[in-house]
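User: Hi! Is it possible to get a structure for several chains at once, not just one? Here's what I have:
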Amino acid sequence: MFAFAARRLMISIPVLLVASFMVFVMITTSGDPLQALRVTNPPTPPETIALEAHRLHLDMPWYERYFNWFGGLLRGDLGPSVNVRENINEEVWSRFFVTLRLVLLAMVLALIMAIVSGVVSAVRQYSKVDYSMTFLGFLFLAMPSFWLAILLKEAGIFLNQVDGDSDSRIFFTYGDRSAFLEDPTAWNRFTDVAGHMILPTLALALITFASWSRFQRSSMLEVLGSDYIRLARAKGLRWRKVLTKHALRTALIPLTTVSALDFAGILGGAVITETIFGWHGMGQYLTDSINTRDAYALMAWLLLAGSIVVIVNLIADLLYGVLDPRIRHD
Amino acid sequence: MTDQLEVTPATKAPETGGFGVRERTQTEIVVRRFLRHKLAVGSLVLLILIVIIAYGGAALWKYDLHSTPDISQPPSWEHPFGTDGPGHDWLARVLRGLQQSIKIALSVALIGTVLGTIWGSIAGYFGRHVDNALMRLADLVIILPGIAVAATLASLGEGTWWMIAVIIGGLASANVSRLIRGVVLSLREQDFIEAAKALGASDTRIILRHLVPNALGPTIVSATILVAVGILAETGLSFLGFGVQSPDTSLGLLVQEAAGAVNTRPWLFYFPGLFIILIALTINFIGDGLRDAFDPKQTRVRQ
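Assistant: Yes, the chains can be modeled jointly so their relative placement is included. Here is the combined structure:
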């Protein structure tokens, strides 16, 4: 199992490096990060621009810049940011954990909703429950994530004002935490962060669960029609036990693949959700970096996102071994 | 599918008067099956209607994208979708947004499908090193969040509609290529491909005449779903500010413009959003109907 994981990582690392090279070439050969400096009024002295260009390695040819960046990466240095006061290393990591807790929680919530609704739909095929689940699945599948997020945000604002007291707050609709807490104990900080997470997590999870629920339904239906389930029933096992112990375990395998493959997509969905709820996360960092043409910040963003996708897919591969007794990674 | 199921003249039943079953072509069977799927047919009709309204309605409607003296009007007979702060008629904007979004989504499906089919069938047919190299290339695209890469690439250009379509379609083709590769891998081992090889058919001929037509079912279904993917990706990109740029507009840009005033001018937010949902929903239903129609396991006979 360990050898298998190591082999998978050895394949993924070159892929990530080639991706980093291609993205780097594309970003650095187009766009001018010093554009903002050049158009100021009064004009910025040319010496300042030259110094800034030197600080951002703009005076080097692109291949030299890439090897310079890569050398820095090995030492843990992600390069200078266009924003002088910012350290890419600190910035990207702190934002990464803000986003990761949103993505992981939304994924867990979406998985639970998908498994429950998929299994119920399959067991009660063509019932009212099945039809309403199917309808909801199609609806959320067709809904743009930003539209749903805005809708939830506005619903939160509406519910906050429903008692007429504009100070009372049930839902937090802006930011990933409060700027100021009157009594910053550990528990208060935790509830504050958790409170801010409710609506964004729900928005991301609802969008994500839709297609998974369809998958879970069809894989459960397929398993329920198979011979070994009939055998389990025939030998007198209780239906509930057949469902949970025999059917569900096998029916989870396709969902494992799909959810891992969708991870990059959820990360993309988080970018949009965070933008709407005004989080200081990876989403805002991405749009800011693109707008300021901050090449090194963008590289750090994409590399981190790519790495986490690789890791999640690796975990999914290892999970097959747990779920499917026929697959063993020795 | 066409190659295997077409009845060749040698096995054709002799014409017997009175009792006879006319053979059906594969296309006929698929069309008949699709037409039985009421929801899919209804969706197709609705989608065609939306497209006609988007293009025909914009030509007939009395307002264009220029502002009117009516500022922040709720929906009325004069302005069915209301107007925004600067006084733009929102129906005219939504129609224009529909045109741009539909145009981009259809192009995404076309580009993604053509590129992905070529990519996947070459990888699946040649196998070995070619397959390895092409699939690692697909991994390269799939490993990164699509919207981040698309936003980065789109920011390098000027935000014309066709450039956005090329970017989203190009990224989507990586997923299509994986699907088509899988289909081609299983087809490649079948006897009729070997027969074609034995007859001396070239690789190009085998791919274009035998593999691609036989993978047509999954290809058409994936192309349909790609339209929905395309419209959601484009609107998301435009919402973030990296898609279609003002003064032109798209459904995503309209939602973004309306996002600040959902409570005070809700009509600005709901109309473009409802059209996005309607288009994506109908396309998903059509895709579902097509999937059932192409599925050889589907019969009306009880098992």
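Residues 90-126 of chain B form the longest helix (37 residues). Chain B has two domains: 1-36, 38-294.

User: Great, thank you!
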